[in-house]
Amino acid sequence: QVQLVESGGGLVQPGGSLRLSCAASGFTLDYYGIGWFRQAPGKEREGVSCISRDNGSTLYADSVKGRFTISRDNAKNTVYLQMNYLEPEDTAVYYCNAHNAWLGDKWGQGTQVTVSS
Q1: How far apart are CA 1 and CA 84, in angstroms?
Q2: Mean pLDDT across the stretch 95-112?
Q3: H or E element: which one contains 114?
């Protein structure tokens, strides 16, 4: 079965950390650029970070720059999002997306991140 599965979300206090994982099954992430997106209640989905397929180049939204780090382990067919110094504004459902211009897009089901004291 072809799918992306996010994990690692949860409840954390402001200033805390979480590491999200995005694991692929049924296909290889080698051919895909990977992006993390999030959607807070009442807001549109927004891009958080992405990592390229080939040279591992990364991009970050200004709101998370310096706090979040995206990485990929092709051997484990998994992409990670390390989130440090979390803020209440980071509360959202986080989704990973695998994109290839020829093969198309795949989305995970999302994982909830809640930052609250």
Answers
A1: 33
A2: 96
A3: strand 111-115
